[in-house]
Each structure stands twice: as C-alpha cells, then as structure tokens.
C-alpha cells in the first residue's frame, strides 16, 4: 500500500512538471506568434483562434476520457464564475507575457500562495501565525526586488502578473466548491470557451490578419495548452495538492530557459534573487498550510 502511495505521489510530481512545461511552451509559442506579426494588438486575435482550437481539443478529450453531461456542463453557475475570473486573469497574464520577460512574469505570478494567506487573514479573519506572516512579508520583499522600484525597466506593467495572481486566487476559491475531480475537464472546457468568447469579442475592436505561418505557431500552442490542462487534471487525481504545489515553481526555470532561447531574455540579478525569495516564501507557506490541515 505504501509503495502505491509513493508511486502515485511520484506520478503527481511528474505530471505537475509536465503541466508547467506545457504551459510555458504554450505561452512561448503565443509570444513568438505575436512578435512575428510585429503588432502587440494581434494578441487578441491570436488567443481567439487558439481558443477555438483548444476548446475543440478539450471537448474531444472529454468524450474520449469519460461521459459528458451537457445539462450539468452549462447549468453550473460556479463554472461561469470560475470562467469569469479566468478571463480577467487571462487578459492580465497574456498582456504581461507580451510586454515583459517570461521569467519575471512567472516569478510575480507565483505570489499566489502569499496573496491567499494575506487576504485570508485580512478579509476572512483567518488565524495566521508569526511565521507565515514573516514568510508573506519576505515574499513581498522578493516582489519589490524583482520589480526594482528604483529602476522600473518595464514601467508599471509589473502590476499585470500580480493582478493575474489575485484573479487566480479568486478562481481557486470558487473551484474549492467542486467535490468531484472527475468533472475537471468539463470545468476547463467552460473556462476555455469563455476565454475564447471574451478575446473574440475584444478582437473585433483590434482587427488583424493572421497569416498561415502564424496559424502553425497557434496550433502548437493549442496542443501544448490542452496537454497542460490534461496533465493538471492528472496531477490532481494522482497526488495531494500540498505535495505538487511546490513543483509549480519549476515554471520559473522553464521561463528563464525558453525566454533566453526564443527571445534572448537574459534574467537580471534582481529577478533571480527576487524569484528565489518568492519561491522559498511560497514553499514555506504551503508547508505550514499542510501542517495546519488547510490543504490535503
């Protein structure tokens, strides 16, 4: 029995690594496609097209892996609430991805555990001890080191990934209401569909012609994104969140490597030091949440 637990935990860690890698690859192809067009405003059209591809692939996955409950799929209000927060997170994240180095975006995005702890203590009156408050404060010091207020190289765009983390926190609060992990793909499908519709409506105001070579990059991004979603679901089914959450920080490493290879983005010392502090603070908060029974 113990060996089975160890095997499942190892699978969960591997699936989370694959999910993080797939997400970063998908983001890389999108950023590369936008840069190839020569206009940042092409982002809305590109995400709209990718959304169509991704939604279809997820729908196929639902039919392949299990039965689909159309009534349940479109009548659950929580799916739309989750999707709404995902849409706002997508706008902030993808905009920051185009405007900032990938590693910086991922580093600031991983402030989510710190934001969850701080907002829980301030707004929900949750008991947070001195050690977790210290970790939260150190984490936000790491944020200051990454953005380097004395030399705002990217202006105030640093707000976008932090806003993304806030919206993702709200999304996860809504997601906690789901008891059955088997409907994860259905939840993801609704999310993908709403993001596609939102970017499609926005693209009306920023019309842009997409060449066939751009479709190639969008297709690969769509495949990588679908795989990332599938790996995320397999992660949830294989191992406790408390075990796999720490592996999410691997996306920073993937961001550094892919950002350098594709966009010649050389991470600054501020980014590296700040990312280490944010990661260590986040890992400590996750560890304490597990010890206190707040996560499984």
Write the layout of secondary structure elements.
Layout: H1 2-37, H2 43-65, H3 70-75, H4 77-99, H5 102-109, H6 112-123, H7 130-147, H8 159-175, H9 184-203, H10 212-238, H11 241-244, H12 250-263, H13 269-291
Helix pairs in contact: 1-10, 1-12, 2-9, 2-10, 4-8, 4-9, 5-8, 5-12, 5-13, 6-7, 6-8, 6-13, 7-13
Word description of this protein:
The protein is an all-alpha fold and 296 residues long. The chain has one domain (2-291). It is 78% helix and 0% strand. The chain has helices at 2-37, 43-65, 70-75, 77-99, 102-109, 112-123, 130-147, 159-175, 184-203, 212-238, 241-244, 250-263, 269-291. Helix 1 packs parallel to helix 12 (250-263) and helix 6 packs across helix 7 (130-147). The chain is globular and about 55 Å long.
| Anisotropy-based shape | globular
Distance between the termini: 19 Å
Total domain count = 1
Biggest sheet descriptor: none
What series of H and E elements makes up the topology?
HHHHHHHHHHHHH
Structural class: mainly alpha
Helix content: over 70%
Percent of sequence in beta strands:
under 5%
Radius of gyration, taken over Cα atoms and rounded to an integer in Å: 19 Å
């Amino acid at each position: 029995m113990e060996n089975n637990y160890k095997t499942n935990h190892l699978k969960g860690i591997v699936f989370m690594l694959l999910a993080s890698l797939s997400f970063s690859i998908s983001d890389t192809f999108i950023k590369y496609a936008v840069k190839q067009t020569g206009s940042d405003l092409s982002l809305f059209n590109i995400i709209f097209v990718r959304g169509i591809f991704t939604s279809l692939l997820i729908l196929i996955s639902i039919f392949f892996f299990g039965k689909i409950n159309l009534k349940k799929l479109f009548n659950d209000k929580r799916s739309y609430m989750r999707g709404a927060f995902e849409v706002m997170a997508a706008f902030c994240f993808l905009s920051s991805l185009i405007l900032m180095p990938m590693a910086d975006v991922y580093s600031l995005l991983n402030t989510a555990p710190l934001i969850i702890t701080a907002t829980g203590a301030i707004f929900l009156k949750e008991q947070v001890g001195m050690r977790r408050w210290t970790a939260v404060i150190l984490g936000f010091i790491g944020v200051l080191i990454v953005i380097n207020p004395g030399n705002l190289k990217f202006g105030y765009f640093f707000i976008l990934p932090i806003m993304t983390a806030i919206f993702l926190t709200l999304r996860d609060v809504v997601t906690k209401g789901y008891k059955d992990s088997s409907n994860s793909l259905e939840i993801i499908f609704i999310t993908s569909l709403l993001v596609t519709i939102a970017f499609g409506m926005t693209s009306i105001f920023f019309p842009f012609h997409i060449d066939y070579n751009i479709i190639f990059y969008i297709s690969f991004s769509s495949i990588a994104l679908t795989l990332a979603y599938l790996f995320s679901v397999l992660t949830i089914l294989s191992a406790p969140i408390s075990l796999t959450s720490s592996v999410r920080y691997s996306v920073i490493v993937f961001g550094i490597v892919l950002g350098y290879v594709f966009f010649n983005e050389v991470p600054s010392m501020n980014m590296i030091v700040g990312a280490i502090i944010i990661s260590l603070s986040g890992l400590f908060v996750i560890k304490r949440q597990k010890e206190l029974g707040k996560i499984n």
